[in-house]
Predict the 3D structure of the following.
Amino acid sequence: MELVEEGYERDNPEVDLRMNLAGTNALVRQVNSGADAAILVAADASFLDDLLDPPAAPPVPLATNELTLAVPVDNPAGIDGPEDLSTEGVLTARCATGVPCGDATDAYLATNGFAISRFTEEANVRSVLAKVSTGEVDAGFVYRTDTEATDAVVEIPLSDAPRVTVTMARLDDGESTTDLARYLRSDEVADLFARLGFGPVDGLAAGGGG
Amino acid sequence: MAAGVGVLLFAIPVIALLADAPWSTLFTQFTAPETLTAGRVSVIVSLAATALAVLLGVPMAFALANMDFWGKPIVRTIITVPLVLPPVVTGVALTSAFGRRTLFGELTGIGLTSTMAGAVLAAAVVATPFLVLTVEGTLRSTDPGYEQLAATLGAGPLARWWRISLPLARPGVLAGAILAWARALGEFGATITFAGNTEGSTQTLPLEIALALENPDTQDRAVAVSILMLIVSLTVLITLRDRWIPRR
């Protein structure tokens, strides 16, 4: 999102885009308590249902992401796949139930019948990634894009990994918001998402253009 | 006038929290398994952290109050740092110092993440400065005459410390311990950053609250547990204050 901000401000020097970066739940909570935001980008579409006031326009999917398993570069516990997480003594980090990456993790574990022996529950995916990259845990459930963003972790792809849809919701219908929303749907941002490892949205080109 | 505004500033959020309470399900929330487990962890961790704070903090306070040594201002500043730093930063610093990938971690083979020892260490580091400053303040305001008198009567340094200085410092130690306990009970940032959030070992009540707040389905529990913490801490603070700290 920092790259989005840079790109938009480069094209619109008169605008100082202010970003509030946090986990989806924290953002939804802030908006519900009256935070003055123009656009909310959520890690998964389903979490927009928690908004108390409906968005000003139907939410627009921007890209998709996939749950994956990350291990520290030297993989001290020798994790080869999710089945190793039930081994005694293996410590896993995961998002808590109720946040997008946590619900995806729950779904994945339930569908595939995997158990994890000992785990720490984090409030957002960045803290999971931090715990893995510092080697404080043996493995962690994060998004594909998180593993691509750093050299400090190695990705162990999951088969049948749950996907989430990064979705934008407009919270007001002002002109500047329209302009920003158009930018978020531009090819430039779509390319940016693709470069960061996000997948395209099914059925429609991710960069549909405003 | 300003005092009244001050009281309101503290009272209004408490009242607002009570107004938000899910009163009908409050008791069910208090006795939910997650709450009971987190409550047990909170009790153990906060008491252990307080014990550690007393063991380490009282000697430090005596050294700072009574001894002259080179670098004393620096030492005092270092001890005070956790008061100023965001607890998350303290957590990061603890990870850099005692994490699995540090010299400490490699030598001992101990990973403190997701262990109760890690939670105790995090809470103790954040809480100890309160004790040190309180005890040091008490020591500075005690009359050195008693100790000098004991010395002229032939009491050795250890006997003087044990029989004279420590008893005189008692109110300060108790007040400091209560403050440290209160801080340890409310500890969040350093704990979640350094020790993680594992049910039954590092998930204390504040961590449970933060986690419950993330999930729209459990937000009622977050408010309920907040009220539980409020009740527990107020009860303890009011009872102990009256019993241990003499009224003037």
Summary: Residues 43 and 89 of chain A are 31 Å apart (CA to CA). The interface with chain B takes residues 23, 25-26, 29, 50, 91, 93, 96-99, 118-123, 127, 131, 134-137 of chain A (CB under 8 Å).
